[in-house]
Write a structure and sequence with these properties.
single chain; 462 residues; alpha/beta; Aspartate Aminotransferase, domain 1; Aspartate Aminotransferase, domain 2
């Protein structure tokens, strides 16, 4: 592995244990055990400090490495660009920034402007700030509330957590910013838990619940509605039929801007360039990050329609008349350079079509497993973004305890297969296994992943 000796790697492990604060991890066990170090990646596979090979079914652990590991052409594109011009603040343009914006907008009919930042949380905050400034410029500050959905996730900053529909992620971090209002989820599998939910036309009913919140709060106070096209970390929840059509009717009726968070679904994950394109959505804002450059460089984008952009055009002498925001590392050129090459790979290798085909294969494999494992209550997803919800009883749909779900994930890891799961996010509902392999996945890769799951379910549940 890159010429490193066992002694070199032992030092790396010691340095990591002594000095690195890992994300989402309790470090107490590292006092007597080793943190895992990922040393190398190629294609769909990664190797740890012990040389053990793993197939990665979650694209870098957090749904990011869409075109797989070890892409030399992306590394070369980044190297060439940063040697020529590595950074300049976003008050001016750069060559890759202009060219990627043009390329990206070409995939997003109806959208015209790209605002660069460096994380999904930051991209979402940009949209929130735009909504708030529009409220002050056009509505005297009144139309400032932002609606968000139960189970959706929009980031880890205090503002994005204020719009976070996952209570366990938010626990211990309040108080939060005012003006963020929650609307109900649209999870058809769990509609029995929602008072008044009908057996038919649930999607329209679920959207109507948003309208009820709008009317309660006052439509003239609502500036935007922020939703994921497919709820990601909240359980891989695909929208029910009729939901998005009704949501858009409601937004148009009350002049509410529609903000689609594509941080997970964007750039091919669902089998179209963006998840919202699966459902005929016409957004005002689209935010994206993870798959934009497949993790080869940090980049995020807040994309807007020209109508939104025009709200910030102003030729008055008012010194407060422009969007007064900057992202320091939004001025890095490595991100758009990597993103350009990432998009070329997806196009040239026809990875959108592969995502659809392999996603269907994964869903079929999981439903086949459900015939043998009654703990699988539901399988859902879009493209290579798939969830399998584990339950203790299919009739009652009682959720499997998070500890048992964790045992399944751990068993797969022991087999050399990395899968994900909802984790300390939704109280009593952290029971969905999550699969998001790279868009390059083959049938053999998918079969290896689901075969490992088959063995894990057998060992954990019998």
């Amino acid at each position: 592995m890159d010429g490193m000796t066992p002694n070199d790697l032992s030092h790396v492990v010691d340095a990591d244990r002594a000095h690195v604060w890992h994300h989402l991890v309790q470090h107490k066990p590292f006092e007597n055990g080793e943190p895992r170090i990922i040393v190398e990646g190629k294609g769909m596979r990664v190797w740890d400090q012990h040389g053990k090979e793993h197939i990665d079914a979650v694209s870098g652990g957090v749904w990011t490495v869409n075109v797989g590991y070890g892409r030399e052409s992306i590394a070369n594109a980044v190297r060439d660009q940063i040697l020529k011009m590595n950074f300049f603040g976003g008050t001016v343009g750069t060559i890759p920034g202009a060219l990627y914006a043009e390329k990206l907008i070409g995939k997003m009919p109806g959208m015209t402007r790209v605002y660069y930042a460096n994380s999904g949380s930051e991209a979402n905050e940009k949209a929130f700030k735009m909504v708030r400034q529009i409220s002050h410029k056009r509505y005297g500050g009144k139309k400032s509330k932002i609606l968000y959905r139960d189970r959706d996730y929009h980031g880890s900053t205090l503002a994005t957590m204020s719009a976070g529909g996952q209570d366990e992620r938010n626990a211990q971090y309040g108080p939060f910013a005012p003006g963020f209002i929650r609307v109900p989820h649209c999870m058809e599998y769990r509609k029995h838990e929602q008072d008044g939910a009908p057996d038919e036309n649930y999607g329209v009913w679920a959207a109507d619940q948003i309208e009820e919140v709008i009317l309660r709060e006052g439509a003239d106070t609502i500036g935007a509605l922020c939703l994921e096209p497919v709820t990601a970390g909240g359980g891989v929840i695909t929208p029910p039929e009729g939901y998005w059509d009704r949501v858009q009717e409601i937004c148009k009726k009350y002049e509410i801007l529609l903000h689609i968070d594509e941080v997970v679904c964007g750039v091919g994950r669902t089998g179209t360039w963006f998840g919202y394109q699966q459902y005929g959505i016409k957004p005002d804002f689209v935010t994206m990050a993870k798959g934009v450059a497949s993790g080869y460089a940090a980049i995020s984008c807040c994309v807007t329609s020209e109508a939104v952009f025009d709200l910030f055009k102003d030729d008055t002498t008012d010194p407060m008349n422009y969007f007064r925001d900057i992202s320091t590392f939004g001025g890095c050129t490595a991100g758009p350079a990597a993103a350009l090459e990432n998009m070329r790979i997806i196009e040239d290798e026809d990875l959108l079509a592969n995502t659809v085909a392999m996603g269907d294969h994964m869903v079929n494999n999981l439903w086949a497993l459900s015939e043998r494992h009654k703990v699988i209550g539901d399988v859902r997803g879009k493209g290579l973004f798939v969830g399998a919800e584990l339950v203790t009883d299919r009739a009652t749909k009682d959720p499997m305890h998070e500890k048992m779900v964790g045992q399944v994930v751990a068993d797969c890891m022991q087999q050399g297969v990395i899968i994900g799961a909802t984790n300390r996010s939704i109280p009593t509902k952290n029971n969905t296994l999550c699969f998001s392999p790279a868009l390059i996945a083959t049938k053999d890769d998918i079969n290896q992943i689901t075969e490992a799951l088959d063995g894990a379910l057998t060992r954990v549940f019998g």
